[in-house]
């Protein structure tokens, strides 16, 4: 269960309206790596958590904090939209500055949300749940989380440098700091899990069941061998189970595939000009 | 530019058809963490790469290999569908086994693709490009890649254990082994980058510009303090820049937000029963 | 079955082209609450209608009218696009007015539709069928319809005030008037249904089967009690079955959830460092 | 800002696992009218609220409660999945009951989420933000909310009757009761707003600007006049501004549309066999 | 403007309910090549038509007919759902036939639409507007239409053979016949347009502006030359402008791409370990 | 299996950056008819091909070439973005040219991809797999391919005329030429298939099973008979099986649909005020 506190977690007050920037800021609210994504991802990972209670608690702590970040951004965007122009086309055409604001805004901020934030990204694309993952394997999921916080901090930093509004920068400096913490947090949690299990996800699959002769081979599928210079092509593997090797000219190991003709009821392409009889039954019937 | 080799990278031959399993196998072909995702993610990261050429080459090597994995899965699924039943409802209703196959199949495998693989996931949802990321920051992106290979290997392992078909298991054992390599590869590449820059993404943002008093604080937003037990709540931070602290009762630091009334042309809700006059102009006009 | 009349239901003639406005006008054609939505929603509600024939007839009447509204908007947008500039970047860069038109247009109006309307919204997002509902319960659906006409009229009014083109305003004044009717129509139909059944949807579920102690309680989940001032917190309920009460400090009534560990074949996170044996079978097998 | 309480708002304990039912229950978690929808809709309406503070507070109260409903459903679904079978195809083919469970499950519950809830609907389609609305006009939005609670309660009732598990029914009886309250709440809030403004949304648009001769006309666009029998075709209108009239044979009031030929750079279809010269400039250039 | 006729264009009466088949039949209602697609595609092509009036009229004739096909399918599906079981899980587990029906149904047909048709496909995926095209070039669009009718007829034929219900087959035999006409119609219209312009779309682009040395070359990008046997590799080209040639070993004609480093404000990957200074300005500023 | 060649298939070097054009060019990379679409469509058609090996080989040849086109466009877009401005709002507001560039850019090119190409269209909408088709019937699919190449060439031509950059035009002239070849190729392949089977898709369905009295009738569903003038209304049909006829006033041939009331467990609308008893069982149970 949840409770709401009226105060925002941190200040969210722009110095002045800026509807074009409001459109851009939507990216870190409702984009692929925006705050809605981490909010939903952490909450669902917490609710589905079948591991130690400290992980469930930690996931719900951070998931709950992310709701507050969504709240800050929504309030910020609403204020940035305060001055959205509704001026009609004719006048605007004579004032390129106003017109370029109109052109640079998300029109839905005026028509649909009435100067409110939307759960969409900076291209106006709605947030969707396929941005999130909760797999039931916490090591896998914490890597997803570290990635999300890395992409997220990168995007907030880019937005920080795209504005000079001190109020906006103040709020973003808070979000950047929290992303610093959250990247560190997931690195810490990953190391902890890698110590209790192996670094390979999932650690519980018997490796003798995998095709081990290709488990540590870097395969060079292009002309040129620049890719041989990396750590991935030499030395011990990171799971401590093998040694990287560089395969300069990997060979195909499989068959040339030839598929059976489709049964008549599929009405596929006749093979060699001969049309199979339309029996009305399927290959399956015959078995 | 690319060339095609007729042989598959590895064998993809099921022992017998299994259209219900074909539906499930679509997940690792066209799902959120399927082979199309890593194919497109690595290729685009390679094409957009502004870093050292060895990274571009490496990304395109592995992206090119992933096209071959898509190819193997597509051919496997087509063969698993060979025996898809078309039997009409009446007869099937008397044979629960056939009926349950019909119920468990993806109907589009018969109606739409004519017993061919689709670029969709196991729920029939089409692959889309928001599954991928290429940010221009390789450390961020390699973390995305490590996550994708972790989720992907986990899914393939689950599918491996859901079948006893030796031909299917043979192919999956190859994909699992390659995912072993690819997880190791991204761990290696991540370490290499963390040595030339800092572990924090992006490493180039001056940390004095972030709100540093909250950069290493774990905030406990729930009743109970199980979350205090983790590595993330104590000791030095992973970027080597600070020390984790546990904030048991975090306080709100921001304002209680109060938004301005909307201008008349928005036709929002009248505040306190008073309707603002409909001037036909906007707040922006007045400035 | 349907017939087409060549004349539009009402005039749709702009005074002059305006490709930036064409982009905005797409919202009420192909947006969440655009004319395609109500067209499809009313037609499907009519076709699926299992109630009195007068409702089916009424739904198909209004659904048929909405096809005509889609037609008017499509024709209007095509005409607004007549003057879409194709001027190349260099020249435009010297003429900010042309450039801002290029920037404010939907580029697909030129590249994809060749100066034609698209079934998309003002952010370029395609219409999709999850915008509509037909539940088989007409009272529920008429509330959906009243909402759609309320949102729709609000959006058209905002667009009316964003242009001074007398031809566009003339057409929009017609659509606004029809939305006036349609809001009134759904209010009338709702009242009629609330008189033959109860106001609660669905009216046929025995209320003794619901947890009646919380059926009329407003729960205050935030600091501060401004929400106690509303009609929803005092007095008789609107379905005539209870009395609103205000719960200032709602208590949790449920368990602290603890989930079972996942079976081995899921390869979840080992609990307390102990990895369950990989038996290759499932919990389900044992039952 | 938000706080999390470890206890669920109400019990969420199934009597036994039922993975087929888990798939169905996803509808009211992540579907068009599931709990994620109302959670996000109420929170965003609250954050964007520019009206009286009691509305903002009320919206955030109920939005915060809905997060708890999402939490209950997620925990319930995870427990319903406890017994998801992983049995391989061969054995299952001999046991139609197991096979039909496999066929009736959402395969992603096993492959992707590892027996956890997903933010998806019962067809496996991911939740997306276009399910929500926050328009800045509270009367419009409260109608959206009343609709959402009507559709939602209807769906939960249908799911209640699709199971006999007493634990599941207990939880659903709580959700149904809360939906009873929430329908009543929005009816109360709607009446309150209709008293301070008019029933027509938006109430602030001058009606003399709409084409008033069609503002209260029901138009019969089909053969037969069953639709004349409804309250919408006779008597005073619900906004108190007019009288319904029934137009048995509505006439077209608009032009037969004829569009201009496209400029050459569009490469449209030559009209009457004559291809316009490819000037490389646009109609816009000439103006 | 449109009128509705109460009678269906053709009979749509199943002999008995079949909810599993109802799910499949959704494909040709709301799928990629279902009737909603052709309805919307033809109507928008008609409304946007800038060519001869006979094309506009023809497109609107056929688009109007397609609304009637959507109507027939919606009514058919509603009737096929009449017998959808609501039986609870326990009993069903003892009756595999009922259970397999439950497993094979689209659960939304019960929970969401209350035994009504949905504008979705057979995988439960909602129809969306990106299934349609109207480009302003009728030859291009008529090829899209011929494709849609080819895919559509193929799918209806497959569905025809998946049922033995005489009522369903009767309706499908009508739709198949109309698809026969519509394929023929688009072939006729295509030939007519190819006679007034060239077969190449668009015919109005000066071919001297294209890289003509590769305009008629088939390039063999794979090992083996089976592809040399087709008509596409020999003889005159179909636009009458060239001669096909087979290029057995196509050479790359372009550069090895090397991208510039990103400016500092992008926070990309440092090149060769050197981090560009964070100047806070962009490359663009300097120009 | 695939190999990568470092050189691009053809040059992709712009003369100078142009971030607004980069946004537009995304259409032919990741749009409905962009290069990703044809790449994925041809590869999947090839992998699923159950016909003659020359078709499989040919499809994989051209699919492999399309990967190279995706590569060229991605590299071109990355270079066009080199000069994307990051200038802050204040300064830009004084320089309308810069501001209009900011307004005309896709903001995700800066925030998300860090000056890299995205697998999206020009409206920022992500590529999805429902853009593609592989039906198992090659004649149907080759018509899809001819359409894709027609729409694609049309869009590239429009983009060619929207720029004067000689480097961009050089690359586009290559893509236009390849589209010339590919349109010709599909025309050739279609003719070849129409000679070995009939022109009607599918050719294997017995036409006596279709409702032949309407197989060659053009039905006039609108006022006016301009549509009678086309080739589709007169003369022999294109499949050589019938003669077109023009039906000026088509009659409805079907029933007036009346649906059964829903069973009680659906909680639909009570018919004629009478609420069916809530038996808790379904119509299905009774059979």
Question: How would you explain this protein's 3D organization?
Answer:
Chains A, B, C, D, E, F: It comes from Lentibacillus halodurans. Chains A, B, C, D, E, F: Its cofactor is Mn(2+); Ca(2+). The structure is a homohexamer of 287-residue chains. Chain A is mainly alpha-helical and 287 residues long. Chain A has two domains: 19-196, Ferritin; 207-247, no CATH class. Chain A is built from nine helices and three strands. The first copy, chain A, has helices spanning 19-30, 35-47, 53-80, 89-93, 96-104, 108-111, 138-160, 166-196, 283-286, and strands at 2-4, 217-219, 245-247. A two-stranded parallel sheet of chain A has the order 2-3. In chain A, α1 (19-30) runs antiparallel to α3 (53-80) and α2 packs antiparallel against α7 (138-160). The termini of chain A are far apart. Mean pLDDT of chain A is 90; it is low at 277-287. At the C-F interface, β1, α4, α5 and α6 of C face α1, α5 and α7 of F. β1 of chain B pairs antiparallel with β1 (2-4) of chain F, so a sheet runs across the interface.
Keywords summarizing the entry:
homohexamer; 287 residues; mainly alpha; Ferritin; 2 domains; 3 strands; globular
Put the structure in a nutshell.
6 copies of one chain form a homohexamer. Chain A is mainly alpha-helical and 287 residues long.
- Mean of pLDDT of chain A: 90
Largest sheet of chain A: 2 strands, parallel
Strand content of chain A: under 5%
Contiguous uncertain segments of 5+ residues of chain A: 277-287
Overall number of structural domains of chain A = 2
The CATH topology label of the largest domain in chain A is: Ferritin
Strand order of the biggest β-sheet of chain A: 2-3
Q: What helical percentage do the residues of chain A reach?
A: 40-55%
Query: Which chain pair shows the most residues in contact?
Result: A-B, 129 and 129 residues
Rounded to the nearest angstrom, the distance between the terminal CA atoms of chain A is 55 Å
Give me the count of strands of chain A: 3
Q: In terms of quaternary structure, what is this?
A: homohexamer
Q: From the 3D coordinates, which CATH architecture of the largest domain in chain A would you assign?
A: Up-down Bundle
What is the CA-atom radius of gyration of chain A, in angstroms?
27 Å
Can you write the helix and strand succession of chain A as a string? EHHHHHHHHEEH
GO molecular function (chains A, B, C, D, E, F): metal ion binding
Binding site for Mn(2+) 2 (chains A, B, C, D, E, F): 66
Cofactor (chains A, B, C, D, E, F): Mn(2+); Ca(2+)
Keywords (chains A, B, C, D, E, F): Calcium, Manganese, Metal-binding
């Amino acid at each position: 269960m949840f409770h709401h506190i009226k105060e925002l977690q941190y200040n969210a007050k722009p110095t002045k309206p800026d509807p074009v920037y409001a459109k851009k800021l939507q990216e870190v609210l409702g984009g692929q790596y925006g705050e809605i994504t981490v909010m939903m991802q952490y909450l669902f990972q917490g609710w589905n958590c079948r591991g130690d209670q400290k992980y469930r608690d930690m996931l719900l702590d951070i998931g709950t904090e992310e709701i507050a970040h969504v709240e800050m951004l929504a309030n910020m965007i609403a204020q940035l939209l305060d001055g959205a122009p509704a001026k009609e086309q004719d006048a605007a055409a004579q004032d390129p500055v106003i017109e370029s604001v109109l052109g640079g805004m998300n029109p839905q901020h005026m028509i649909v949300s009435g100067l409110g934030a939307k759960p969409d990204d900076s291209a106006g694309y709605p947030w969707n749940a396929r941005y999130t993952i909760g797999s039931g394997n916490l090591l896998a999921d914490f890597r997803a989380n570290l990635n999300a916080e890395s992409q997220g901090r990168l995007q907030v930093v880019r937005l920080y440098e795209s504005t000079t509004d001190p109020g906006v920068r103040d709020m973003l400096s808070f979000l950047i700091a929290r992303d610093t913490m959250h990247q560190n947090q997931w690195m810490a949690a990953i190391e902890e899990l890698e110590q209790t299990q192996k670094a390979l996800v999932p650690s519980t699959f018997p490796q003798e069941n995998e095709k081990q002769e290709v488990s540590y081979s870097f395969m060079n599928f292009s002309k040129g061998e620049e890719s041989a210079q990396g750590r991935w092509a030499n030395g011990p593997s990171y799971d401590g189970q093998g040694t990287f090797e560089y395969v300069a000219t990997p060979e195909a190991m499989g068959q040339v595939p030839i598929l059976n003709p489709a049964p008549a009821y599929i009405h596929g392409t006749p093979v060699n000009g001969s049309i199979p009889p339309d029996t009305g039954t399927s290959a399956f019937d015959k078995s």
